[in-house]
Amino acid sequence: MPKYLDRAAVVQLEDLPNIGKAGAADLRRIGIQNPGQLVGQSPLQMYDTLCAKTGARHDPCVIDVFMSAVRYMEGAEALPWWSYTAERKRLLKSG
């Protein structure tokens, strides 16, 4: 069984589905040091914080990645980040 299917094995940010070195660095940049800190976070606010801290507008797909990580830590199935693209587009359109 891949380790990301067992949340007990997710101890570092890089252990999360869809999170590699760059994604983990982005999370650390916004104050997320471990996977448990993702529970209850708003992926849209996380994205806004990242853009503010780096002084750059990041690709909106970063929101999808953040959504996948937050939802996974909140108990959702591990899904590819692009599974959240349609939801992100709806959220941004309604926001």
Automatic annotation (TrEMBL):
Domain of life from the UniProt record: Bacteria
Protein name per the record: Helix-hairpin-helix domain-containing protein
Organism: Collimonas rhizosphaerae
